Amino acid sequence: MCGRVAQHQGPVEYGSMLKIDWTKNLSRDLPNTPPHYNGAPGQDYLIARSHPETGDTTLDLIRWGLLPSWAKDQKIAWKLINARAETVATAPAFKKAFAKRRCLVPVDGFYEWKKVGKEKRPYLIGMATGEPFTLAGLWENWKDPASGEWVRTFTIITTDANELVRELHDRMPVVIGADDRDRWLNGDDPQELLKPHRGTCR
Question: DSSP letters of 67-101?
Fold first, then answer.
């Protein structure tokens, strides 16, 4: 699973990586969020999505922990912080979002833990270059039946761990490389992108 991420840069930095043109909507305020150095589910994160009308990539604040449209309450979100790549296209909680609401989660790293003696030590895993990168995600709209408020949430997709991460855990988040980001957001069949990262990590 992926239960902690580092997202400590701002919308300008991540927007530059994602080639987002903020000048197209000067009336729109930049998303404002504190940095997450050890970010946990239940908090808001900067998420890149494709605008349904213009096709432009936008960066928005969305809560980590997916709420399917049919959820009765918000408790289920804690069970849906991750989606398995092997079943994401068919699982009831994720299949609609996989077809229509894919997103990218820009991060500076993600955490895994290794048991050493009686304690678990955290390891921050990132690119060897130190540059931010993007994880595959899905987002959803959910209407709170009590308040009528619309809540947007997301999940991070995981796959088998690569050689590096396997020393810590048997799963890892799916990393979407720069050349595949548009295909992940807008392509008709992005299933083959859901595989372990083969680049250089540290």
Answer: --TT-SSGGGGGG-SEEETTTTTT-TTTHHHHHH-
The DSSP-derived string for 141-173 is EEE-TTT--EEEEEEEEEEE--TTGGGT-SEEE
Domains of the chain by start residue, with CATH = 5-193 (3.90.1680.10)
Encoded amino acid at 98, one letter:
F
Q: Return d(Cα 54, Cα 106) in angstroms, integer.
A: 21
Q: Is the pTM of this model over 0.90?
A: yes
Q: pLDDT tens digits for 36-59? A: 999 999 999 999 999 877 778 899
CB atoms within 10 A of CB 23: 6
- Tell me the one-letter amino acid at 173: P
Both tokens of 164, joined, read: 């590096």
